[in-house]
Write a structure and sequence with these properties.
Layout lengths: L7 H15 L18 H4 L6 H9 L6 H18 L5 H27 L1
The protein binds the ligand CCOC(=O)c1ccc2c(c1)NC(=O)[C@@H](C)N2.
Length: 116
Protein backbone atom coordinates (compact mmCIF):
# COMPACT_ATOMS: atom_id res chain seq x y z
CA UNK A 1 0.00 0.00 0.00
CA UNK A 2 1.18 3.56 -0.64
CA UNK A 3 1.05 4.24 3.13
CA UNK A 4 4.02 1.92 3.60
CA UNK A 5 6.17 4.20 1.43
CA UNK A 6 6.36 6.91 4.12
CA UNK A 7 9.89 7.73 5.26
CA UNK A 8 10.64 8.18 8.99
CA UNK A 9 10.89 11.94 8.35
CA UNK A 10 7.46 12.05 6.71
CA UNK A 11 6.01 10.08 9.63
CA UNK A 12 7.61 12.52 12.07
CA UNK A 13 6.41 15.57 10.11
CA UNK A 14 2.83 14.27 10.04
CA UNK A 15 2.85 13.38 13.72
CA UNK A 16 4.28 16.81 14.62
CA UNK A 17 1.70 18.66 12.53
CA UNK A 18 -1.09 16.59 14.11
CA UNK A 19 0.19 17.43 17.61
CA UNK A 20 0.48 21.15 16.76
CA UNK A 21 -3.03 21.24 15.33
CA UNK A 22 -4.42 19.51 18.44
CA UNK A 23 -3.45 22.68 20.35
CA UNK A 24 -5.77 24.71 18.11
CA UNK A 25 -8.96 23.41 19.73
CA UNK A 26 -10.90 26.41 18.43
CA UNK A 27 -9.65 25.61 14.93
CA UNK A 28 -8.98 29.30 14.25
CA UNK A 29 -5.74 28.30 12.52
CA UNK A 30 -7.27 25.34 10.64
CA UNK A 31 -8.09 27.16 7.39
CA UNK A 32 -6.79 30.25 5.54
CA UNK A 33 -8.19 33.49 6.97
CA UNK A 34 -11.38 34.19 4.99
CA UNK A 35 -10.54 37.23 2.85
CA UNK A 36 -14.25 37.94 2.28
CA UNK A 37 -14.75 38.11 6.05
CA UNK A 38 -11.47 39.97 6.62
CA UNK A 39 -11.09 42.14 3.47
CA UNK A 40 -8.04 44.12 4.66
CA UNK A 41 -6.06 41.05 5.77
CA UNK A 42 -3.60 41.15 2.85
CA UNK A 43 -2.86 44.84 3.51
CA UNK A 44 -1.03 43.67 6.63
CA UNK A 45 -0.12 40.02 5.93
CA UNK A 46 2.10 39.30 2.94
CA UNK A 47 2.26 35.51 3.35
CA UNK A 48 -0.86 33.92 4.87
CA UNK A 49 -0.42 30.46 6.39
CA UNK A 50 -2.65 27.94 8.15
CA UNK A 51 -2.71 24.25 9.11
CA UNK A 52 -4.62 23.09 6.01
CA UNK A 53 -2.04 24.74 3.76
CA UNK A 54 0.74 23.18 5.84
CA UNK A 55 -0.88 19.76 5.51
CA UNK A 56 -1.12 20.14 1.72
CA UNK A 57 2.55 21.13 1.58
CA UNK A 58 3.48 18.17 3.78
CA UNK A 59 1.60 15.69 1.58
CA UNK A 60 3.25 17.27 -1.49
CA UNK A 61 6.66 16.60 0.11
CA UNK A 62 7.31 20.37 0.30
CA UNK A 63 8.84 19.95 3.75
CA UNK A 64 12.11 18.03 3.69
CA UNK A 65 13.00 18.84 7.28
CA UNK A 66 11.39 19.70 10.58
CA UNK A 67 12.87 23.21 10.28
CA UNK A 68 10.83 23.85 7.13
CA UNK A 69 7.63 22.85 8.92
CA UNK A 70 8.62 25.08 11.84
CA UNK A 71 8.99 28.10 9.50
CA UNK A 72 5.35 27.80 8.41
CA UNK A 73 4.16 27.18 11.97
CA UNK A 74 5.98 30.31 13.14
CA UNK A 75 4.51 32.24 10.18
CA UNK A 76 0.99 31.16 11.15
CA UNK A 77 1.56 32.44 14.70
CA UNK A 78 3.35 35.64 13.61
CA UNK A 79 0.58 36.59 11.14
CA UNK A 80 -2.00 36.28 13.89
CA UNK A 81 0.05 38.31 16.39
CA UNK A 82 0.54 41.03 13.78
CA UNK A 83 -2.99 41.32 12.44
CA UNK A 84 -4.97 40.97 15.67
CA UNK A 85 -4.78 43.53 18.50
CA UNK A 86 -3.29 42.41 21.81
CA UNK A 87 -6.65 42.43 23.59
CA UNK A 88 -8.28 39.93 21.20
CA UNK A 89 -8.97 36.23 21.63
CA UNK A 90 -7.11 35.60 18.36
CA UNK A 91 -3.94 37.30 19.65
CA UNK A 92 -4.14 35.41 22.95
CA UNK A 93 -4.68 32.12 21.11
CA UNK A 94 -1.55 32.74 19.00
CA UNK A 95 0.59 33.30 22.11
CA UNK A 96 -0.78 30.09 23.59
CA UNK A 97 -0.21 28.13 20.36
CA UNK A 98 3.33 29.48 20.14
CA UNK A 99 4.16 28.30 23.67
CA UNK A 100 2.46 24.90 23.44
CA UNK A 101 3.87 24.37 19.96
CA UNK A 102 7.39 25.17 21.10
CA UNK A 103 7.44 22.19 23.43
CA UNK A 104 6.10 19.89 20.69
CA UNK A 105 8.71 21.11 18.20
CA UNK A 106 11.61 20.71 20.64
CA UNK A 107 10.57 17.11 21.32
CA UNK A 108 10.16 16.42 17.58
CA UNK A 109 13.63 17.87 16.89
CA UNK A 110 15.14 15.42 19.37
CA UNK A 111 13.35 12.57 17.57
CA UNK A 112 14.53 13.85 14.17
CA UNK A 113 18.09 13.89 15.44
CA UNK A 114 17.77 10.36 16.78
CA UNK A 115 16.19 8.96 13.62
CA UNK A 116 19.00 10.52 11.52
C1 LIG B 1 -16.15 33.98 9.89
C2 LIG B 1 -15.25 35.08 10.34
O1 LIG B 1 -13.97 34.50 10.61
C3 LIG B 1 -13.00 35.39 10.87
O2 LIG B 1 -13.14 36.59 10.85
C4 LIG B 1 -11.71 34.78 11.22
C5 LIG B 1 -11.62 33.40 11.33
C6 LIG B 1 -10.43 32.81 11.65
C7 LIG B 1 -9.31 33.62 11.88
C8 LIG B 1 -9.41 35.01 11.77
C9 LIG B 1 -10.61 35.59 11.44
N1 LIG B 1 -8.29 35.76 11.98
C10 LIG B 1 -7.08 35.25 12.22
O3 LIG B 1 -6.10 35.97 12.44
C11 LIG B 1 -6.90 33.78 12.23
C12 LIG B 1 -6.06 33.35 13.38
N2 LIG B 1 -8.14 33.06 12.22
Amino acid sequence: ALELQLTPMQVLLRSTLDQLQEKDAGQIFAQPVNLKEVPDYLEFISQPMDFSTMRSKLEAHSYNSLAHLEVDFNLTVANCLLYNAKDTLFHRAALRLRDLGGAILRHAQRQAHNTG
